[in-house]
Amino acid sequence: MRKIDFLRIPVLLLMAAICLQMNMNSAVAEETAAERGYRLLTTRAYLPPDFDQGVFDDLWKVWPDDWKQKAEQASPEERRELIFSYYGIMQRPESEESPLGYVVTPEQKWVMNCFNCHGGKVAGTVIPGAPNSHVALHTLTEDVSKVKLQQLKKLSHMDLAALGIPLGTTHGTTNSVIFGVVLDSLRDPEMNFDRSRPVPELLHHDMDPPAWWNVKRKSRIYVDAFVTKNHRMLMQFILVPRNNARQVKEWEADFADILAYIESLEAPRYPWSINEQLAGQGQTIFNEHCARCHGTYGSDSDYPLKTVAISELKTDPVRLNSLPAAYRAALNQSWLSRYGKDPVVESPGGYVAPPLNGVWASAPYFHNGSVPTLWHVLNPQNRPEIWKRTENGYDQSHIGLEVQTYSKMPEGLSRMQKRLYFDTSQFGKSAAGHDYPDELSIEQKKAVLEYLKTL
After folding, report:
1. CA-to-CA distance for 362 and 385, rounded, in angstroms?
2. pTM of the model
3. Where are the domains of the chain?
4. What CA–CA distance (Å, rounded) separates 42 from 113?
């Protein structure tokens, strides 16, 4: 019988551990920048935690009675799905146990990441980079605060922010622009936090998150294209007081990889049938009437990145007016713009006509998310005043969200219930403007709608 040399076992274990670490390092080294970007987004915490697992597990206990009863009777797995549904939290496609829009740390702390707004689902399928048209940030934050108070836990930065700033007045939209204004304004040009710095008057409004797969086509970003695209500008949303200038700059390489990931995304293909003959007719009409602003598509595609004056476009002007010239000018002197080497447009004057790749999957439309389908974009007189979407329905005839429309808001709604409805009469939520389709006939609009499925 062969004797075992017990003295060699620790050495062998050490060698095995070294080999395993070398293999892991090799695997990480073989990652592309885009792969690193996705891994960093979904595993590294750049912000303080919003809540812990204990708070998450008890969220249902502060729900309205009908939802609370569903959760109480559900299994733990079903209850988790209900919580995700209630707040518009998406699951990571590669892991049903992990949220896409949050990093869950080993200590079971939930930390928000960019996917909370930029990782949504279309017809029930989660697509990283798609707008999260379900996100219910203010509702979630309100409920988190209630549970924390019940559990005698400290409130987080998000809980405290929600006391003075609306985080989103309609599910699927957020007050993200103003988040950036506040965080940017409290930093000096070198990114040092300075609470004494003045914050401009805040013009609160909701924004619909844009699709990430079109970032690659742009040299300037945001709805008014006022910022030259660079990875530093993506970092403005991590400028919370806890992250000092040194820490922010140490993370710069991470955000270069995150931008590489964003620019690696491709628009999803329309999954249902397309009338190719009608779409071909629509392409001709589109190129004659729409391409001068929205660009062309196919093998010889071109995108002009054209800003249209607000006086011509006539869509809701609140977003444009929410960034004062002084704020824009300060960004031109900031580390974020490389001290003006990536210029900031201080008076853009309007909104940029976006690329339309994957437009079928990016409903609702307009920068404020006020128009539920492409058919409504093409038929301005028929845009609903008030609408409410279903969770996973998709309107294949109108191309966009499956919605129920209303002439007025139902009575007796709670604050949370009101956020389920999009009311275009409210400040910053107008669905007016972009009347260009009026020059097309009904038949031409049908053809263009069919063509848009192919992009």
Report:
1. 20
2. 0.91
3. 33-452
4. 7
